[in-house]
Amino acid sequence: MPDTAARAAAPPSPAGADGAARPPEDALAGLVDATALHAPRRSRVPLPRPVRRLAGPLLMVVVWQALGTFGIVGERVLATPGSVLSAGWELTRTGELADHLLASLARVASGLALGVTAGLVIALTAGLFRLGDELLDSTMQVLRALPVLGLLPLVIIWFGVGEAPKVALVAFGTAFPVYVNTYAAIRGVDNRLVESGRTVGLGRLGLVRHVILPGAVPGFLVGLRFALTGAWLIMIVAEQLNATNGIGYLMNQAQSWYRTDIIVLGLLIYGVLGLAADGFVRLLERRLLGWRRGFEGGA
After folding, report:
1. Which fold has domain 74-288?
2. CA-based angle 147:113:239, to the nearest 5?
3. Greatest mean pLDDT among 48-62, 67-81, 105-119, 191-205
4. What separation in angstroms does the CA of 287 have from each of 33, 198, 221, 235, 281?
C-alpha cells in the first residue's frame, strides 16, 4: 500500500469555488514563463521599417517649419521648408538644378572610382604580402594624417583650376577609408579558418579566394560607406573654389545674395545623396553577406 500512503501524505491541491483542483502557483508561473519565452515577439510599433526610419527626419522638418512660422527663427537666418521647396521647384523648372547636380555627380563618381580602386589595390597588396605591408602600410598611415582640404592649393598648382583638382581631392580623400578598413579586415581574418582551409587542401590562392577575401568583404563595405560620405564632404568645399557649376558652386553664389533657401536646398541635396549612397551599401551588404546573420536589434 505505498502508493496510498504517499497520496495521503502529499499536501492537498488548492481548490477553487467550484471544488475543482488548481495547479500550484509555482507551476502556473513556470507555465507563463515558458509561454512567454516561446511566444513570437512582436514589434511595439506596428509600422513598416521604412516608415519608422523616416519618422525622425519628418519630425525634424515639422519642428523646423514651426520655428519659421512662429517667427522664432527669421527667414534671413534659416529659410523654412516651404521656402526651400519653392526654390527647388524654381531651379528644377528652369533646368539649372539638374545641370549643377549632374556636374557634381560626375566629379564624385570619377573621384570615387579612382580612390576606391587605389585603396582596394593597396590594401590587398599590404594585407596579403609581408613585403607589401612593410613598404606600404607605414606610408599610407603618414598620408592618411594629412588634411585633405589643406592640399587644395597644392593640387591647384599641380592640376590647374579645371576638373582635375576636384576629382583628385575626392580620390585622395576616399582611398584611405577603403584602405584602412579593408587592410584591417584582411589581417583580422581568424587564423583558425586559415588553418581549416589548409587542412582541407587549399593552397595560397584557394585560401585567398575562399577564406581571406570573403572575410574581408565586411571591412571593405565599411570603408566604402565612409568613402561615399567623405566624397560629398570634400566636394561641397572643392566646388566653392574655382568652379563654374555644381551644387557647391550654386550654394556659393546663393551666399552672395543671402539666399538661405538655396543654401539649405544644396545641403539637403547632399544629405539625400548621402542617404542614397548608404542605402546602396546596405543593398550590397544584403547581396554579398547573405550568408552572415548579425544582430538586428530588439523589438
Report:
1. MetI-like fold (1.10.3720)
2. 50
3. 105-119
4. 38, 27, 12, 29, 10
